[in-house]
UniProtKB/TrEMBL annotation:
EC nos: 2.6.99.2
This protein's name: Pyridoxine 5'-phosphate synthase
Catalytic function, reaction form: 3-amino-2-oxopropyl phosphate + 1-deoxy-D-xylulose 5-phosphate = pyridoxine 5'-phosphate + phosphate + 2 H2O + H(+)
One cellular-component annotation, GO: cytosol
Entry binding sites for 3-amino-2-oxopropyl phosphate: N12, R23, G200, G221, H222
Pathway(s): Cofactor biosynthesis; pyridoxine 5'-phosphate biosynthesis; pyridoxine 5'-phosphate from D-erythrose 4-phosphate: step 5/5
Stretches assigned to coiled coil: none
Predominant subcellular localization, coarse grouping: cytoplasm
Key words of the record: Cytoplasm, Pyridoxine biosynthesis, Transferase
Annotated GO biological process: pyridoxine biosynthetic process
Organism this protein belongs to: Paragemmobacter straminiformis
Annotated active site: H48 (proton acceptor), E75 (proton acceptor), H199 (proton donor)
């Protein structure tokens, strides 16, 4: 199967805010990082406004919505509070994610199938406001099919387990998880969903995900922000883009 288009790179700037909040100051500024990513070739910016505001704050989302020229992907839990913010700001995309206060980062995919009735109405309101709605899910076919049924435009496949297994050199399990992601991407595409992927991706593990022809966008944050300490954000993005493009060659 030939690739469906250029693979986009979305940059998650949450952890710029994590560093800022560690000192309770105004620096580093997430908007400045987002604008630098924009200037360095990012195709979009992702920011997750958590219920506990542990990194990104309401003022950051306001600034990003006003200041970016590339699309803003607003990650949030499917709560009334977050829906009201999204309906007011109308970002390009809203990615609905599971959220638990005790987790360090998003640990799994959203249970779309188990909450389909509520999410159908939730998604419809966001769509009516002009937002592309994405479901952050695992590769379980039930969740993919439910995402299509409730009217989502996009699924973002959670690559966290794949990334963990790859880092631990658990080769057979890594291959099994990669196969599940490949099947999930193919199913989602067959149902008319745009396919994105993200969580835990690095220079070392990105190629097999980038090589999936149905995947149109990767969203990467923590690794790139960390790598920017050594290379600068522009250099970190350039190297990720190089590896993504190399993985797509010949498809």
């Amino acid at each position: 199967m030939k690739p469906l288009g250029r693979l986009r790179l979305g940059v998650n700037i949450d952890h710029v805010a994590t560093v800022r909040n560690a000192r309770g100051s105004a620096w580093p500024d997430p908007l400045r990082a987002a604008l630098l990513a924009e200037a360095s070739g990012a195709d979009g910016i992702t920011a997750h406004l958590r219920e506990d505001r542990r990194h990104i704050r309401d003022s950051d989302i306001e600034a990003l919505a006003a200041g970016l020229r590339i699309p803003l992907n607003f990650e949030c839990a499917a709560t009334d509070e977050m829906k009201a913010i999204a309906l007011r700001l109308r970002p390009h995309a809203v990615c609905l994610v599971p959220e638990k206060r005790e987790e360090r980062t998003t640990e799994g995919g959203l249970d779309v199938a188990g909450d389909a009735a509520r999410l159908t109405d939730y998604v419809a309101e966001l769509r009516a406001a002009g937002c592309r709605v994405s479901m952050f899910i695992g590769h379980d076919p039930r969740q993919i099919e439910a995402s299509a049924a409730i009217g989502a435009a996009v699924v973002e496949l959670h690559t966290g387990l794949y990334s963990e297994l790859h880092a631990e050199d658990r080769h057979a399990e890594t291959e099994a998880e990669l196969h599940g992601l490949q099947k999930g991407a193919a199913l989602a595409h067959s149902l008319g969903l745009e396919v994105h992927a993200g969580h835990g991706l690095t220079y070392d593990n990105v190629a097999p995900i980038a090589a999936m022809p149905q995947v149109m966008e990767l969203n990467i944050g923590h690794f790139l922000i960390g790598e920017a300490i050594y290379r600068g954000l522009d250099g970190a993005l350039d190297e990720m883009r190089r590896r993504m493009d190399q993985a797509r060659e010949g498809l």
